[in-house]
Amino acid sequence: MNSPSRILVVEDESIVAFNLQQRLAQLGYDVPAIAVSGEECMEMVSQTLPDLVLMDIHIQGDMDGIEVASRLRETHSTPVIYLTAYSEDSTLERARQTRPYGYLLKPFSERELHATIQMAFERYKLEVELVDNRQLLQQALDAASMGVLEMNTATSAITASPRTADLLGWSPNQPHCRDDLLSCVDAEERAEVTARLDESLAKLKRFSEEFRVLSEDVPPRWIKLDAGHASGRRMTGVVQDISARKNSELRLKLLNDSLESLVAERTIELKQCLKELEAFSYSVAHDLRSPVRVIVGFGQELIREHASELGADSIDLVNRIVTAGQRMGALIDALLHMSRLNQLPMQLRVVNVSEIASEIAAQLMEAAPERVAQVRIAPNLEAMADPTLVRSLLDNLLRNAWKFSARKEITHIDVGSKTLNGETIFFVRDNGCGFDMASADRLFGPFQRLHREDEYAGTGIGLTIVQRIVMRHGGRVWAFSEPGLGAAFHFTLST
Ligand SMILES: Nc1ncnc2c1ncn2[C@@H]1O[C@H](COP(=O)(O)OP(=O)(O)OP(=O)(O)O)[C@@H](O)[C@H]1O
Ligand SMILES: [Mg+2]
């Protein structure tokens, strides 16, 4: 059970005091002491720390009850109820200024006394909660370095907390108004901030703005003001300094801008270099073609026309020269083909991938009618892409699938697509010899081959072409395989 509330009685008439003590005891209160003068009251409050003081106004000593109550307000926060027989206006006014918790005119009934005490305790409890909440709010605002700003929207008068005044460069405790606030805003942004404030006031909308504050007394800083309309006549908000964030955003933006222009510069340089390199390799490849053709041609002629004069060993050597020359010729042709594809301007349109794949597959099967093959191509595969490049891409993938499954009794090739996270992924899958995934990173490099030339012929340029085509479309290409079980090549064309 709660211990009874303790009430200090200040009354200089002993009979009245005794009677009051009895009545309070009957009501369940504890009266730890009775004081007859102001001095005694101050001393007893310090000693007994009562929950409430019942104060007669006319008491012994130099101070009357009202003076004692106003002293008490300064030293203790103990609530005071006046008990008096006097009700003149001047006394009432003096008493009012001490913000009493009640004013009971003698004689009063038990019920009146009890109700007044109860009300006083209730009000006191609420006031303590209010003070606690204010403290909590202030601590939160201090921790966030925030200030408070309140504007009377009828008069435009602004009340600013010390932190707000500090942030805006205002002297504390000076009256301010809406125009003072707007004149702090950087001239460049003032018109916009004024318009937003007007709109917020007209529509009672939240106001949330970040702006630069320029004032004679503070260095330029960035402020964020968030305010809402507590009632039609009051706009209340918090002010915070966001300079650190704004400055790092600015630094980041400057850094990004300079990085972007650096990247753009380098890209132009690189593109130029690449173009020169392409042109150089094209002309080298092109110029190499005829001497290689001459070597192969004369070699073949030597065997054809002079076989009888050459011994078997010499014929074997010349044959090797011819084969190597032919291979070199094939490599040069592949390089030239790749160069040409790279230089073609892209022409994007809806491409029927299924149709192109079917045409290529038909050619492959026609060229090797002895092979048993099942080629399944999903219908209606479409892509927004360059048709010539897509044909070359599919040609290389299907040719590979066909070539590397040549030793299987029955060749199975599938062409299809699937959608993953909204992205269309095409695939070409075969049941051929496959490759070791440990070497997968070499697949797309020029002249990289994972199989021996005498097993599967080729120059090693096909997948390089595939990768370049995919990259020109902004897509990706990758592969999965298991030796002996086949390979699957996936690609996207995301343009
Ligand atoms: N479907 C596949 N199955 C197994 N290995 C493959 C497959 N596709 C490519 N490879 C491996 O990747 C290598 C590179 O392929 P790429 O198409 O670039 O060259 P290539 O087919 O050998 O020659 P080219 O295409 O220039 O005539 C191949 O030599 C082969 O080792
Ligand atoms: Mg190939």
TrEMBL record:
Recorded topology in the membrane: Multi-pass membrane protein
Subcellular location: Cell inner membrane
Statement: the UniProt record of this protein carries the keyword Kinase: yes
Gene Ontology cellular component terms for the protein in this record: plasma membrane
Enzymatic reactions: ATP + protein L-histidine = ADP + protein N-phospho-L-histidine
Biological process per Gene Ontology, one example term: osmosensory signaling via phosphorelay pathway
E.C. number: 2.7.13.3
Segments forming domain Response regulatory: 6-121
PTM sites of type 4-aspartylphosphate: D56
Positions of the PAS domain: 133-204
Keyword entries, A-Z: Kinase, Membrane, Phosphoprotein, Transferase
Top-level taxon of the source organism: Bacteria
Pfam families: HATPase_c, HisKA, Response_reg
InterPro entries in the cross-refs: BphY/WalK/GraS-like, CheY-like_superfamily, HATPase_C_sf, HATPase_dom, His_kinase_dom, HisK_dim/P_dom, HisK_dim/P_sf, PAS
Main location: membrane
Nucleotidyltransferase keyword on record: no
Residues covered by the Histidine kinase domain: 283-495
PANTHER family: BACTERIOPHYTOCHROME, TWO-COMPONENT HISTIDINE KINASE
UniProt protein name: histidine kinase
Source organism per UniProt: Hydrogenophaga aromaticivorans
